[in-house]
Amino acid sequence: MNSSSNIFFPKDLFIRSLVKCIWRSHERDVIKRYETILPKGNAEIIFNLCGNISYFGSTADNKQAFPKCIINGVNDSPFNLVKEGEQVFLGIQLNVYALKYLFNIPVKEFNNNVIDGKLVCKKLDDLWYQISNEFSFEKQTMLVLKWVYEKLAASKHFIDLNPILHLHSKLHLNEFTVKSLRSEYNYSERHVRRLFNNWFGMNVESFIQYKKYLKALHLIHQSTLNLTQIACDSGYYDQSHFIREFKSLTNMTPKHYQQRMSRLLGHIYYSI
Question: What is the pTM of this model?
Answer without folding.
Answer: 0.86
